[in-house]
Amino acid sequence: MSTMMMEDIESEEVKNLQIEFEWVMRDEVHSILKKLREILMECARRFPVPLYDNEGKRTEKFHLVAAQDQLKCTVTLTGDSITQADISFKLKRSSSQVQRTTITSDAPWKLQQVQDAANHLQQAINHIDNVDENYKFRSSEEVLQIIGELIGALQRGRTSLIIPKKKSIEDLMNSRNMKSLAPNLPEDQAISFFLQCHKLIIAVYQLLNVQGTMKMEATQAECSVGWLNDVLVLFTVGLTLCQQLKDKMNAFKMDTLS
Hints:
47% helix, elongated, alpha+beta
C-alpha cells in the first residue's frame, strides 16, 4: 500500500472521528444527561422524605431480633426518623436480666444518613438542571468537569447509606439521639440505629469491667429495608452511566480531538 493511500485512510479516520466527536458533543451528552436525570428522579421518588415530586414521609414498621433473643426491637420508621420503638436486651453481666426502653413520637430518633443521601442526590440533579438543553459543549474537558461533579455527588450519596460514620462509645453515649430514649439508659450502656447497605441495624453497647479493664460488648440486630435496596441500585445505575460517558470522553481526549 502506497504512503499516499495510507495517509488518505488516516485522514479519513481522523475526519470520521471528528464527525463522531461533534455528534457526541452536540447530541449524545445531552441525551445521556436526560436519561441520567430520569434515573435520579426515579431514585428520588423511592426516598421516604419530601424530595422533588415524591409524596413525602412514608411510615413502615420493622422487627429486629438478634440470636437467642439477646436483643429485640420493634421500630416504626417515618421518613428519616424512628418515631416509635420498643427495645429490650439482655444485660451481659446477667443474662437473666432484661433492660427495656422506648422511643416515642414526642422525641423521634433521626437517621441522618437518609437526609445526607437525599441532599447529595438533589445536588446531582441540580448539576444536570444547570446545563441548558440547547447548550453547545466546546471541549471534552467541559463535559468531564460536569461528569466529575455528578460522580462525586452520587458517590457521596451512595456512601452515606453504605458506610455509617464511625463513632466512639463516648460519642454514642453523648449523642443527641440518646435523649430520645425513655427511660434513659444507665451510663454504661448506649444504643445506636444506623443504615448499612439495604439494612436498618440497631446496636446495643455495654461497658463491662473485666478484671479491672473496661471492655465494650456490642449486640446487633438487623432487618432489610426495601426502598434502601432500590435507591442503592439506582445510585449504581447512575454512576455506571456517568462512568461510560467519562470513558468515552477520555478516549476522545487521547485522540487529541478537543
